[in-house]
Amino acid sequence: MLSKEVINKLNEQVSKEMYASNLYLSMSSWCYNNRYEGAGQFLFEHAGQESDHARKLVTYLNETDSKVELQAIAKPNSEFKDLLDVFEQTYKHELEITQSINDLVSFMLEQKDYSTFNFLQWYVAEQHEEEALFRGIIDKIKLIGDKSNGLYLADQYIKSLSGK
Ligand code: OFO
Question: Which Pfam families did the record assign (predicted)?
Answer without folding.
Answer: Ferritin
